[in-house]
Amino acid sequence: MNLSPLNEAADRPVGPGMRPQGLTQFIPGKDRVVRDYGNLDPVLGRIGSLEVRLATTAREIRRAQRLRFKVFYEEMSASPGGAALISRRDVDAYDFICDHLLVLDHDVKPKAFRPAKPKVIGTYRLLRQDVATRYGGFYTRGEYDIAPLLKAHPSLRFLELGRSCVLEAYRTRRTVELLWHGIWAYVLHHKIDVMLGCASLEGTEPRDLALPLSFLHHYAAAPAEWQARALPERFTAMDILPKDAVDPKAALHALPPLIKGYLRLGATFGTGAVIDRQFGTTDVLVVLPVAAINPRYIDHFGPTANRHAA
After folding, report:
1. Is the pLDDT of residue 290 over 90?
2. Could you read off the pLDDT of 74-102 as tens digits, one per residue?
3. Which range among 5-9, 128-132, 283-287 shows the weakest confidence by mean pLDDT?
4. Average pLDDT over residues 210-226
5. DSSP characters over 36-104
6. CA atoms within a 13 Å half-sphere pointing along the CA-CB vector of 182
7. Helix H or strand E encompassing 185
8. Rounded Cα–Cα distance for residues 78 and 1 (Å)
9. What's the CA gap between 267 and 38, in Å, rounded?
């Protein structure tokens, strides 16, 4: 989860669909509208009490950042800096230019003298290529050399997925399905051709992750036209075990649910892993061309993302 510095990160507007106002847009107490999605309804879908939507206000983005802090820093082993400890939020410069996908639970009890408000229980961060280009590139470029991959497909639209997390009590198939419904609706609206991003395995010792890393290397490597390598100074070999020593069933069991979900969709993976000591993770590069998505999942969500439409 390495942060690459942006060029004049977020002090200028980035055109239709986003209205960053610099650091002031996330000052507590401020609840201005900071995202305008045009003719895309921010509410993308619903299952029971759970709703998936795009954040439109500074307050909604702050709530996503608080959820990320709770999962990454309190539950997992990320090391917060002073600012994160004070604010209890996971924040970086990319928050100012990304769109933020939220899953809300509307089935919450009101507190004394306060009306009930939906609880943010899941989030994803979305960064389109046209926006990333204006601000110095994708977050992923801080870990992987993706420039040749982007150059090899100049006519395709890329979308970076990242900073995903779900509150522990909600890590169910229903929540994950709703997140992916939201992503699929967003992909269709923006005519995205390829999704990419870093996904994490917990832990920073490659030998402890030998089975899942070796499985991804031997059984799920991206084909040459979709390949990208970890940056030389950050490269960690994934082929720790020879292929004949990898039990695919056991390896799948050892993979995080998010990575297993990417595999089911049809994703493949870049060469080399990256150790992120701040977040206590080992990262791998996910590459998922829309054309490679398993047709049964497209059928499941609906060709126009209408299965769970709001």
Report:
1. yes
2. 999 888 888 888 999 999 999 999 999 99
3. 5-9
4. 98
5. --TTS-SEEEEETTEEEEE--BHHHHHHHHHHHHIIIIIIS-----HHHHHHT----GGGGTSEEEEEE
6. 31
7. helix 173-189
8. 10
9. 30
Name the average pLDDT for the chain. 89
Q: Is the pLDDT of residue 11 over 60?
A: no
The pLDDT of residue 16 is above 80: no
The C-alpha angle 173, 102, 12, rounded to 5 degrees, equals 145
The partner residues of 57 in beta bridges, in order of sequence, read 33
User: CB within 8 A of 65, min separation 6: which ones?
Assistant: 26, 87, 89, 90, 91, 95
pLDDT tops 60 at residue 137: yes
- Residues in the chain, total: 310
Helix (H, G, I), strand (E, B), or coil: what is residue 121?
strand
CA separation for the pair 90, 66 (Å, rounded): 6
CA contacts within 13 A on the Cβ side of 168: 7
Measured CA to CA, the distance from residue 53 to residue 36 in angstroms comes to 13
Strand 119-128, strand 99-105: pairing: antiparallel
Q: What is the model's pTM? A: 0.89
Q: How far is 172 from 249, CA to CA, in rounded Å?
A: 21
DSSP label at residue 232: G
68 Cβ contact list (under 8 Å, min separation 6): 89, 90, 123, 163, 165
C-alpha–C-alpha distance, residues 73 and 111, integer Å = 26
User: Which residues lie across from 104 on neighbouring strands?
Assistant: 51, 120
Q: Give me the pLDDT at residue 9, please.
A: 33
Phi, psi (5° rounding) for residue 287?
-130, 125
Query: CA 132 to CA 139: how far, in whole Å?
Result: 8
